Amino acid sequence: MTEVSRVEGGGNVEPTVAADAPGPVRSRPRARKILLFQNAERYGLLVIWAVIIVVFSILEPHTYPTFSNVSTIFGSQAPLMIVTLGLLIPLTAGDFDLSIASELSLSAMTVAITNVNDHWNIGLSVLAGLGTGVAVGLVNGLLVTSLDLNPFIVTLGTGTFLEGLVFGISHSNTISGIAMPLVNWTNTNFLSIPREFWYALAGVILLWLALQYTTWGRRLLFVGRNRNVARLSGINVSRMRLSAFLLSGVIASIAGILYAGTTGSADPSSGQTFLLPAFAAAFLGMTTIQPGRFNAWGAFIAVYTLVSGIVGLELLGMSTFVQDIFYGAALVMAIAAARLMAQHRTATT
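The chain above was modelled as a monomer; its predicted structure follows.
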């Protein structure tokens, strides 16, 4: 770098950088490149969602871009959205909860059996459904934290146990005829979109606020990043993980109640269809809005991006098995994308 001396009126000599000095000029493209990469990370999935909508609107102009189709997409996926929110909490703490879909089934079946078969008031049935979430969340959390068991194995076991339990108490039958107050509470429209979508959106906002702006949320993230450091910093790691499993169970039970109200029934095998989509949405959502972190808004965008693509393919005549292909591929690509983005961030810092 060359310097040019400039003599001011008082005779003081002030060194200045020559106009052709390459230092500052060289740093600007690098900063611009980093900024572009960060924006691509944050909003890339939103662009993909928009492209999917445009493409299928062109291919199926009479059905895909209609308001009835949009309303159906938003409303029908509310239980999946809420299950995904429940999954985000233990994932943020560094734990897996593979029982969350079975808990949805148990909650929905509890509501159906107590209300339809046992003739309970629908309010009591809903409380019973929530109670199953509290119980399962506590059992998972205590097994993982008190006995120091692997959460992947524990929740796989409890999920399988719950699945068998649901089939047992229902005698492998779908139970329909749930009281209309719950059905109306979920299916009636607000602003021409089913209420269940607005409940799910409220859940997204609440979880975003909790993870982003509360001490509990910051500590949960700290525990997920490095438990040993978190413990040395005075955080009760076991209590934080227990709270994550407890909240995961409660939110899963809320999704089950919502599902029971949406369909007016409970199917013993329905919950398992939510497990893969929830994981796909959680990991895909980690690549957007707040890249590298499980976040509520990213999960919201991921759920409806995936569903928008699946609905478009089905309208084109694809078979229903395309869902499994789509969600499975999305999960693998999301994990790979998260890893590549993390490597790129490390290389640029």
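The beta strands are 3-7, 13-17, 175-176, 189-190, 193-194, 265-266.
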